[in-house]
Amino acid sequence: MRGPDLLIRTAMITLRQLYRYPLKGLSAEPLDRVTLRAGEGLPLDRMYALTNGSWDFDAGRYQPRPKTDFIALMDHPALAALTTHVDEDGRRLTVRTPDGGALDIDLDDAAACDRFAGFVARHLGARFEAPPAFVAGEGFRFTDVSVLSHSMMNAVSLINLATVRRMSEEWGVDIDPMRFRANLYIDGAEPWSEAGWLDRELSIGEVKLRAVMRTPRCAATGVNPLSAQRDMTIPATMMERYGHRDLGIYLEVVGDGVLRVGDTLDLAG
């Protein structure tokens, strides 16, 4: 009974939403489909970032650095008020501001990138040790877990929408799943079941992946993506209620394929 029961249960798990975040700490870009390759992450995901001015970036010698070395939501909630989009070639950036203004930046133009970094610093109204710098990954990504290993740098993140709904019910508050800035949002699984998938292979449509790590949550989840205000203390509340602050999992891509919204997720074995 275990085998057939597993197949029936997992056949109803589907990929509901798919996102990339070209600029670390800035807005999500929804996708309908994406081509993935083994050992690689989503194309353009966290390929650009803004340093916090406390260090000098050298692409040729770069080693992964912690998120605190970059301008990120955990320290700067006002980032959520900016809407950004990078074109498919990764060469042009469009930024929309809360007052309806728009900026168009040629990412091959160093001076334009400097102006964008300065604009963000002014928008945040924060003081930095030195001017923030716009930086581009050349063979690497600015993911939070890049400090752990090269393979983790290219991992994709997954959120189970049922888990977020369960938390919302238990906490008596509506928790926006976009607070967790995942690449993949699935539905149809049991709440918290994804935490038990570690070291298992799964397929979503034609793409094969392996669950490699639970996702520890930081203060960035406290920022409301709609209001750009810090209005929750999700990690602290999770520790109080559950004794941990893990929500969602990281997946390593182990087989090439096209991932599409609406694809079915199946667990191996």
Automatic annotation (TrEMBL):
Pfam families: MOSC, MOSC_N. Residues 105-268 form the MOSC domain. This is MOSC domain containing protein. GO terms for molecular function: catalytic activity; molybdenum ion binding; pyridoxal phosphate binding. It comes from the Bacteria.
